[in-house]
Amino acid sequence: MNYSIVTYDCQVAIFLVALENHEEAQRPAFLHTGLAAHKPREATMRYSTQLCPRYQHAIEILGKKWTGLILRVLMDGPQRFNELAEQLEVVSDRMLSERLKELEEEGIVDRQVFPETPVRIEYALTEKGRALGPVLAAVERWAEAWLDVEREVER
Q: Domain holding 149: CATH number?
């Protein structure tokens, strides 16, 4: 039987999922238990068995539209939602909110609520998020060396 390793939402547990369409009797015993009932929050990306799943998951996170810009702005320090929105003027509030929630779920962004009047909420990078600094700097250097901004703006 062929199996692939699939992780669900950065949980420690690893589930084996049958790739072939086997009858119930042929499936491993744990697939009949409650363990198999745990489903991923949402289907996001099919992973190739030929490439590292961690690399593929990282590319899935960083490859989403606007994520790189959000991370770049947060590299300068904690920001309130409106401060982020002002700097990321091309990103809608709905999309910014969605991306921040996704990054928070991944442990890259921390959302801190200050019990003041009015309530103040700040977004900041976690240690995991700050570790992306060299990656973003490398992308920036690559873009400066290889991309023609004037041609991109005209599109």
A: 1.10.10.10
Residue 63 three-state SS:
coil
Q: What is the pLDDT of residue 42?
A: 54
66 lies in the same domain as 35: no
At 105, which amino acid appears?
Answer: E
What is the distance between the alpha carbons of residues 98 and 86, in angstroms, rounded to a whole number?
A: 16
Identity (one letter) of the amino acid at 54? R
Query: Are 103 and 128 within one domain?
Result: yes
Structure tokens, 75: 């590299």
* Burial (CB count within 10 angstroms: exposed 0-12, middle 13-18, buried 19+), residue 130: middle
Task: Count up the domains in the chain and report the number.
Answer: 2
User: β-strand 109-114 against 79-80: which pairing, if any?
Assistant: unpaired
pLDDT in tens, 103-127: 999 999 999 999 999 999 999 999 9
pTM of the model: 0.68
Q: Is the dihedral of CA 18, 20, 23, 28 positive or negative?
A: negative
Give the DSSP H/E element, type plus range, for residue 42. Answer: none
